[in-house]
Amino acid sequence: MNAQDEVARLARLIREAGRAVVFTGAGISTESGIPDFRSPGGIWSQMAPIYFDEFLASEEARRETWRRRFAMEAEFGGAEPNRGHRAVDALVRRGKVAAVITQNIDGLHQASGIPADKVIELHGNTTYATCLDCGERYEIADLRRAFESDGAVPPCTHCLGHIKTATISFGQAMPVPAMRRAEEETLAADLFIVLGSSLVVYPAAGFPELAKRNGAQLVIVNREPTALDPIADLVIHRGIGDTMGAAVGVN
Ligand SMILES: [Zn+2]
User: Fold this and answer.
1) pLDDT tens digits, residue range 99-118?
2) Which one from 109, 123, 162, 237 is the annotated catalytic residue?
3) Residue 45 has what pLDDT?
4) How many whole angstroms from 128 Cα to the centroid of ligand 1?
5) Ligand 1: centre distance to CA 141 (Å)
6) What is the pLDDT of residue 117?
7) For residue 163, how far is the Cα from the chain centroid?
8) Which strands make up the sheet holding 119-121, listed edge to edge?
9) Is residue 123 flagged as an active site residue?
């Protein structure tokens, strides 16, 4: 199929759907200049990941975690939502998409205008931090100033707990409320659209399978083939911004 036919089929599936869910992975954010950490040559293939237990146990591991986080800020802290994010936002505003389930931690769906309560973050969010003990929220810019003057991020001012980005680390349990909501939204959807995920990370990758088993139409837009291409109703191996932008009518 050529690109025009694929976009037309996608547009028709969206038009015919009563309640859609969008599931996004790194591929939608690479179009905003954010690297895919898990890809070959990505940051996590060059540096050993720091597991959650190490973060809790070692001051040095906490310093290294924060050093990496601030280095990331310097490189792509200014990333902005792209045409793909805007197309998803348009579908949410039109009432077509009930929820966005994302593996991304960059907050770009919220930055595109989608209300935070419609974004289900399976791996958390790196654009702010929280105290691991009392949950108090901290802003990255404030923590960075402290890190640059003292060489470390201070403990929580309320309870002296460790402050960490609001992400799910390696070795940290998946967030139960987010997983449960993602499952509920998946089961309520008659159209499930995957954007930019290779669908190799479980349990996240189980959602499109669940949607398909439950009778939903499954669409996958990803530059590379994915493990679930064979069961999808429509597979498009092209850019997300151009594909979704054209299908939804958003620039
Ligand atoms: Zn605290």
Assistant:
1) 999 999 999 999 999 999 99
2) 123
3) 55
4) 14
5) 18
6) 97
7) 21
8) 119-121, 97-102, 20-24, 191-195, 217-221, 234-236
9) yes
